[in-house]
Amino acid sequence: MRIPVQTKQNNLSNYEEMAANFDWKEVESVFTWSKTGKVNEAYEAIDRHVHEGKGDQLALLYSDANREERYTYRQMMEKSNQFGSVLRRIGITKGDRVFIFLPRTPEFYFSFLGIVKIGAIAGPLFEAFMEDAVRDRLDNSEAIALVTNKELLKRVQTDQLPHLKHIILVDGPDEEREGYYNFQEEMDKSPTTLDIEWMDREDPMLIHYTSGSTGKPKGVIHVHNAMIQHYQTGKWVLDLQEGDTYWCTADPGWVTGTSYGIFAPWLNGVTNVVRGGRFSPDDWYQTISKNKVTVWYSAPTSFRMLMAAGDELVSKYDLSSVRHILSVGEPLNPEVVRWGLKVYQKRIHDNWWMTETGGILIANYPQMEIKPGSMGKPFPGIQAAILDDEGNELPPYQMGNLAIKTPWPSMMRSIWKNPEKYREYFSFTGWYISGDTAYRDEDGYFWFQGRIDDVINTSGERVGPFEVESKLVEHPAVAEAGVIGKPDPVRGQIIKAFIALRDGYKPSDELKEEIRLFVRHGLAAHAAPREIEFKDKLPKTRSGKIMRRVLKAWELGLPTGDLSTMED
Ligand code: 6R9
Q1: Rounded to an integer, what is the distance from CA 505 to the centroid of its chain?
Q2: 173: how many CB neighbours lie within 10 A of its CB?
Q3: Which keywords does this Swiss-Prot/TrEMBL entry list (predicted)?
Q4: From the CA of 175, how far away is ligand 1's center (Å)?
Q5: Ligand 1 neighbour 331 (Cβ under 6 A)
Q6: Is the CB of 261 under 6 A from ligand 1?
Q7: What is the DSSP letter of 455?
């Protein structure tokens, strides 16, 4: 099935022609730094518009249950300048890691832009992270400053973080304490102008931690040069145009919430909607209708939850402002695309990319036919291929490793303090290996098949099984644990843990609940196993590795395959 184009929209009028002729260099001339050679992505996203006479245009429309605020580009420029000054006064300089552990609120965005403006490296954290997850990230990155609030500070083990010298609290501190600062007081003391730190294109700007199948989460480093891709994909994939009101539902703790919740919309000069608080179908439809959202970027898990909330709910709201809908994070089920067509009378445009890629690489464009279930075609300037395990390109319809020709503007430039991990992605010369499997059809559309490793994708969140297993075995009752993703109609996958108990512990529902809460409170709610099954013994290799492949086969009732490496 193919869904034809509904309207002709942006200036990527002819995909085939653009894909054949596009040169990233053409994009550079939009920006100031094509003349100076020096760049700052936060400046280009915000200040540039003010200098081009668009300072009074709305940049941020923020709301949550208690607050409703709007900020123009000029105000965003001034607030982020002030925060940049705060950091400079404290002694933060270029290259320092400054983390933000806050709910999605305007302070998050002022801080983020301020950090980038002074050339420091911004580290956004999910508000949902608990103690261990926060500690691992602050520790590995050797973060020197943290912007947070009193409630979330309780989850920061400052005594175990010798590098962390400065804590800026948006609602505190209650009394004077060395190294603690009051966000608002410091902002009030700061000028609204700032000497921007002019950076080289290749200077680091952002660190996002993401999960692999082994080891602790890794710190993916992005550089200022990523802006070329943020800007151009914003134009051609998100279809951002003058006058748009855009809503990306992703949290900035996730790469989608920075590349497409901060940079792409502001580089393109549109109004960016941020809605705080938790997901609810009513709340989301209200957010669209109240703000007259024109472009809406979300994730399959959310669309599936909206679908579960029913067609009738949709008819209660005026969603007619919406022109363009997009999805990323996991496979977008054809059923959801068809449902979107029925209830929103709009196509939902799937696109593919990763934390490591920094920006969209494969997409369904507004002016292209959609084949439901396909991720779309490579962005102009991007060469995608399917490789076999020796690095040879495979013909259409053969499944293999989804790979991208290196480099591209927003590609990660390193893994923090882990060059070996970084190299693993580039084991075939000239290619980035994504870890996803896919095939290409004869029209050049790419179709996602799965992950090569054991990484779990639950409601669009990437969870490393190792991280969850490590936490599980910290529980006194748990001797061994193996964690897999189990297919789930709404969440894509749920986390299922197989657990062997220590001597003296008996399986019970209470114990399951206790273990679940242990992970929930130690790591994060989304990392806690929804299902737990007790086993006398877990399948292991002779070298002692838990064989998740066998656990998966048990779960799905499939053959267990080659067991030659399994211990007796
Ligand atoms: C942006 C983001 C990356 C992994 C990726 C793949 C899965 C993302 C997808 C998709 C099927 C899509 N994924 N988009 N799978 N169709 N359109 O999601 O980054 O959190 O790093 O996850 O997510 O497996 O490798 P990240």
Answers
A1: 39
A2: 15
A3: Acetylation, ATP-binding, Ligase, Nucleotide-binding
A4: 44
A5: yes
A6: no
A7: -
Q: Which two tokens stand for residue 500?
A: 């062997």
Instruction: Evaluate whether 462 touches 209 at the Cβ level (below 8 Å).
Output: no
Structure tokens at 295: 């472009």
User: In whole angstroms, what is the distance from residue 103 CA to residue 126 CA?
Assistant: 8
The HSE-up count of residue 455 (CA atoms within 13 Å, CB side) is 24
Amino acid sitting at position 126 = F
Topology given in CATH for the domain delimited by 15-439: Rossmann fold (3.40.50)
The atom number, within ligand 1, closest to the CA of 355 reads 21
- Is the CB of residue 329 below 6 angstroms from any atom belonging to ligand 1? yes
- Residue 139 CB partners (closer than 8 Å, separation 6+): 160, 161, 163
Domain ranges in the chain? 15-439, 455-556
CA 226 to chain CA mean position, Å = 15
* The one-letter amino acid at 547: M
Is 178 in contact with 188 (CB distance < 8 Å)?
Answer: no
For 123, the token pair is: 């580290």
CA nearest 393: which of 402, 423, 408, 380?
Answer: 402
Helix spans in 368-435 (H): 419-424
In order, the DSSP letters of 170-209 are TT--SS--TTEEEHHHHHHTS-S------B-TTSEEEEEE
Short-list 375, 38, 397, 386, CA closest to 195: 38
Residue of minimum CA distance from atom 4 in ligand 1:
354
Measured on CA atoms in the order 80, 217, 414, 24, is the torsion positive or negative?
Answer: negative
β-pairing verdict for 431-440 and 400-405 = antiparallel
Report the separation in Å between the CA atom of 76 and the middle of ligand 1, taken as the mean of its atom positions.
Answer: 31
Q: Is the peptide bond before 407 cis (omega within 30 degrees of 0)?
A: yes
Tens of pLDDT along the chain (568 residues)? 677 665 545 566 678 888 888 999 889 888 888 778 899 999 999 999 999 999 999 999 999 999 999 999 999 999 999 999 999 999 999 999 999 999 999 999 999 999 999 999 999 999 989 999 999 999 999 999 999 999 999 999 999 999 999 999 999 899 999 999 999 999 999 999 999 999 999 999 999 998 776 677 899 999 999 999 999 999 999 999 999 999 999 999 999 999 999 999 999 999 999 999 999 999 999 999 999 999 999 998 889 889 988 999 999 999 999 999 999 998 888 889 999 999 999 999 999 999 999 999 999 999 889 999 999 999 999 999 999 999 999 999 998 999 999 999 999 999 999 999 999 999 999 999 999 999 999 999 999 987 888 889 998 888 888 888 888 988 999 988 999 999 999 899 999 999 999 889 999 999 999 999 999 999 999 999 999 999 998 887 665 667 888 899 989 888 877 665 566 5
- Does residue 330's CB lie within 6 angstroms of at least one atom of ligand 1? yes
Per CATH, the number for 455-556 is: 3.30.300.30
